Give the backbone structure.
Amino acid sequence: MGCVMCMNTVIDRSRLPELLSFYQGRGIMVNFITLCQGTAASEILDNFGLESSERAFLFSVITQENWGGIKSGLQKEFGIDIPGTGIVFCIPMSGIGGPRELKFLLGEQPFKKEDESTMKDTKYELLYVICNQGYSNLVMDAARNAGAGGGTVIHAKGTGTEKAEAFFGITLASEKELILIVTKFEQRNEIMKAVMKEAGMESKAKSIVFSLPVSEVAGL
C-alpha cells in the first residue's frame, strides 16, 4: 500500500490543453493551474527546438500506485524526460483536513487508507491551503490565531469545480488562492483545525488544507 502524493507539473504553456486531457483521461483531478516563466537560457531552447520558456504549473493529488502509469505516459506522450521539455515531481502528503476533501482531491482514483508512509521525525510541515480568491486574509487570520507566523499567497485557476457538488453540495469559484505556510510539526494540527473551522467548506472561503513534510528549514 502506497501513500497519497502532491504531483507538481511544469510544462510548456502551449501543451496545457493536451496535458489536461491526459490527466483527466486517467482520473486525475487537476486542482489548480497558474502560468509561469521558465529560466532556460536561449541556447538551451535552441538546442532542443523549443520556441519559448512560457510555462504552466499544475497541481494535482495522486496515489503512489497511480504514479508509475502516469510517469510512463508522460514520457511516451510528452517526452517529459527530455531536458527542457518540463518536469513532474511528487511529494508525499502527511495530513489532510478531512475525508471528503481527500476524496475530492483524488478524483476518480481508488484509495484505501492504511498506515502513513511519509517522512518521519520531521520538525516542520508545509501547509497548503486552497481557497476561493479574496479570502487569503481570512485563512491567515485563522492560522495566525493558532500559532502560524506568516504565509505566501499564489493566485491560480481552479479546475474540476463542476464536480464539487457531489462531495460538498456547493458551487466552488474557479479563481483560487494557494496559501503556503511553514510551521513547526507540533503546531500543524491546531493550525489546520483553525483554518477548517474559520475558513473551511462551511465558509465563503471554501478552503481545503493539507500538509507536506519539510526536511530542512532556514529563515524561520
